[in-house]
Design brief:
The complex is a heterodimer of chains A (about 475) and B (about 300). Chain A contains 18 helices and seven strands. Chain A has about 475 residues and is mainly alpha-helical. In chain A, the strands form three sheets. Chain A has a three-stranded antiparallel beta sheet, with no helix packed on it. Classes of the chains: A mainly alpha (about 475), B mainly alpha (about 300). Chains A and B meet through helix 2, strand 1, strand 2, helix 8 and helix 15 of A and helix 2, helix 3, helix 4, strand 1 and helix 9 of B.
């Protein structure tokens, strides 16, 4: 008679053995004299590959010269790249892969269900600490680093914009499980709605346009959502990508309406109950008897995006507890089961698209008012990819993960601007800013390979039986669109 | 009428290039079920390698006989681009095999950003012009010109497609690929080296993309680090339109996208040709959710 399965039992048999063998990944022998030799050989192979790959890009360079293209050689660069790859790979082989057991990251299953009894856990505390820091951030910056206050507040605004966009997209991808590669379209709709409304009608300011922009973006979300209702997974992904591109191309070419590549400029700045942040007798500073400073406007804009982001978060958290939010999550897990239980998946999908798009629209109109100028340049596919990357890298469906990923990716990349000292090491021609996106891409790949489920690896189910508990991220299905 | 024929020829030429890139997408999708977003940029890398090789051969080494030069360029570009394709798979996709569906999609987008910016940093952001190398053509009928370049592109595509179909249908590698497509675990149990088969799929896709890169470079005479994106999206659109996972579908989709684009620019407006291609895609998918030649997905309960 078979035993009753218990949680401490481990599987037996050939399959389990094969899996164990695969986990122990042969790669390199762990100890002994053969190890160094193996490591060296592997490093030589990697360096040779780097040489092959780099030959046409590092060693040779084509430039426009009088009478056609000319080739310049840069052997020094090529050889140093090969040397760096060799040294790096050797170091990895000797000191890193050994500990992890093999050069290839075995796919680990972290399907552990931890029951969190009561009270506060680490993530909730971290969330509140972050919230508290975010509330006083501008003043903290002004107090600690008055020299760079403008830059740093600007960077915080940028990070918060991405947090908000990430949370908006999280509704579509993380909760409803619909893979959307064209989220930037709604961002663009929001930005252009506000820009066009405010430039055509004098009386429409930021606060009037904000809900209108959100509404228009939501309508667009439904319009674009309709045709793709029947599509799944990657088909959905490509069609949403196509819609994003269509909107950008239209914005670029409909010159009379959108200004084409010139974009729209002189978009009004937001006001505080009619008070403008300008020098003069009726400005914000004069009204409150403060000395005029340009930093006031930055702080104000910071708080606008902060409030918008918090609203996005709160709405998402509340929606998850409503029937529609539960339907989204149920649809993400199993659409067929969902339909057989009588959930109208059409409406469920459309609401996910519409609400996600609405927050994208809010963020877009914020973007327009912050920049004062918009053009189709700002709404490329890259922007969609960055937002999606933030959502997935943070941990799909995890609100906290989006914040962490935005800080790491956007903040980390902007840090490169401050690495001026590198210029002294590598010479005048070295400009770290040029490598920003290169590092961004590398970080995307590295983080995903390191943590395929995102930086935050636990999720909180919205519906529980008896206990509130956290579950491993791999127990939740990912935006596969079905 | 002659205008129509001329546009038809131009469309077929452009469609051949898209088709060759689309094959790379569709093969990878068929075998591991992921969108290889970096494939468009592999195409761009191939075009750059071809350009540099071409310049070395003609201006540094002084070869003058064009057919030989082009043949060498073709071989070198295919080899080196294949190395890039292999590396991308090894670095970004293999560690995530068997992982969650979105993880390789994100690394693919990451790789695409890396490749674009790597080329931009190392080769500069400015466009690289190359004067037309193959001039002349034949007059088919009055007013319809079929240039030698177009003949070369169409013939090369037909030859490669035929070779490729044979490869998939007749050789042991092709059988291994089809086996991995059906069931990787079962294929592995029967002695197919799955990792190697998948690597070779990427290698072949990259080599075909390199051919497309050379043809693009010769046809348009100008390349930059950004050509991969749009060509990649169009080719992927083509693959989806034809039914992703199907080789004849990729070619058919490529030709259709090429034709739509050229006819739209010829008869309506050049600015909105991308809108036309993408709209057709959306419309086709609404009525045929798995593309023109794709197998409908079976819902398992």
């Amino acid at each position: 008679m078979a035993q009753t399965p218990t949680s401490t039992m481990s599987p037996e048999g050939a399959q389990a053995k094969a899996e164990k063998r695969a986990e122990a990944a042969p790669g390199l022998p762990r100890t002994g004299p053969g190890r160094l030799q193996e490591a060296l050989r592997d490093a030589v192979m990697t360096a040779a590959l780097a040489g092959v790959l780099g030959f046409f890009f590092l060693a040779l360079r084509t430039d426009i010269a009088p009478g056609g293209l000319a080739i310049t050689t840069r052997w020094g660069l090529w050889f140093s790249a090969i040397a760096i790859v060799f040294a790096g790979r050797l170091a990895l082989n000797l000191f890193w892969f050994d500990k992890r057991g093999g050069g290839r990251a075995a796919v680990k299953t972290t399907a552990k269900t931890t029951v969190v009894s009561e009270g506060l856990d680490f993530m909730t505390i971290a969330g509140w600490v972050m919230f508290a820091v975010a509330v006083v951030l501008p003043f903290l910056i002004m107090w600690l680093l008055p020299g760079q206050q403008r830059q740093l507040i600007d960077l915080s605004i940028l990070i918060l914009t991405y947090v908000m966009l990430g949370w908006g997209l999280n509704i579509v991808v993380g909760l409803a499980g619909l893979l959307d590669l064209g989220y930037v379209a709604f961002y663009a709709v929001g930005a252009y709605s506000f820009a066009l409304l405010s430039t055509h009608f004098e009386f429409i300011g930021f606060w009037v346009a904000l809900p209108l922009a959100g509404l228009l973006a939501a309508i667009w979300g439904v319009i674009l959502g309709f045709p793709v209702l029947r599509l799944r997974g990657d088909y959905l992904a490509i069609v949403t990508l196509a819609f994003g591109e269509i909107i950008r191309v239209v914005l670029l070419n409909w010159y009379q309406f959108t200004g084409g590549p010139d974009g729209i400029s002189r978009i009004p700045k937001p006001t505080l109950f009619g008070l403008e942040f300008a020098r003069g007798d009726d400005g914000f500073a004069a009204f409150f008897g403060l000395e005029y400073s340009t930093i006031h406007r930055f702080i104000f804009i910071y708080y606008i995006i902060f409030v918008l982001a918090i609203v996005t978060h709160l709405v998402t958290v509340r929606l998850r507890r409503l029937p529609v939010g539960r339907a989204w999550e149920a649809m993400r897990e199993d659409e067929i089961a969902c339909r057989s239980l009588g959930i109208n998946t059409t409406n469920t999908k459309l609401t996910a698209f519409a609400i996600g798009a609405m927050f994208g629209g809010f963020a877009g109109s914020f973007f327009a008012t912050r920049q004062g100028f918009i053009s189709p340049e700002s709404f490329t596919f890259l922007e969609s990819a960055i937002i999606l990357a933030i959502v997935v890298l943070g941990g799909l469906g995890s609100q906290f993960g989006v914040v962490i990923a935005s800080i790491v990716m956007i903040g980390g990349i902007e840090l490169l601007r401050n690495l001026g000292f590198l210029q002294q090491i590598f010479g005048e021609g070295f400009d770290p800013v040029r490598f920003r996106m290169l590092f961004f891409g590398m970080a995307m790949v590295a983080i995903m390979v390191w943590k395929p489920r995102g930086l935050i690896s636990t999720r909180e189910p919205s519906v529980v039986l008896k206990h509130r508990k956290k579950i491993g991220a791999d127990m939740v299905s990912q935006g596969e669109g079905h | 009428m002659d205008y129509f024929l001329q546009q038809l020829i131009n469309g077929l030429t452009l469609g051949s290039i898209y088709g060759l890139i689309a094959i790379g997408y569709t093969m990878v999708y068929g075998i591991i079920g992921m969108i290889n977003f970096a494939h468009g940029d592999i195409f761009m890398v191939g075009a750059f390698i071809a350009l540099t090789t071409f310049l070395i051969l003609t201006s540094v080494l002084g070869f003058a006989f064009l057919p030989v030069v082009l043949l060498i360029v073709l071989i070198i570009a295919m080899l080196f681009t294949a190395a890039w394709g292999w590396t991308v798979e090894r670095v970004a996709y293999r560690p995530l095999r068997g992982s969650f569906r979105l993880a390789p999609l994100i690394t693919a987008i990451g790789m695409s950003i890396v490749l674009q910016n790597f080329v931009q940093v190392t080769q500069g952001a400015r466009v690289k012009p190359l004067p037309p190398q193959i001039r002349g053509g034949i007059q088919v009928i009055e007013g319809v010109q079929l240039s030698y370049m177009q003949i070369i592109i169409i013939v090369t595509t037909v030859v490669l497609m035929a070779a490729f179909t044979l490869l998939i249908a007749r050789t042991s590698l092709g059988r291994a690929q089809r086996a991995c497509e059906q069931d990787q675990k079962m294929a592995a149990l029967l002695g197919v080296n799955v990792d190697r088969t998948i690597s070779l799929t990427f290698v072949m896709g990259a080599a075909l993309a390199a051919v497309a890169g050379i043809m693009f470079m010769l046809l348009y005479g100008v390349i930059d680090f950004y050509i991969g994106f749009l060509a990649g999206v169009k080719a992927f659109t083509a693959a989806v339109l034809g039914g992703i996972g199907s080789l004849p579908g990729a070619m058919l989709g490529g030709l259709l996208i090429g034709l739509i684009e050229v006819f739209w620019s010829g008869y309506f407006s050049v600015e909105y040709k991308d809108v036309a291609a993408f709209s057709i895609l959306a419309i086709v998918l609404i009525f045929l959710p798995s593309g023109l030649l794709g197998k409908p997905e079976v819902e398992k309960v």
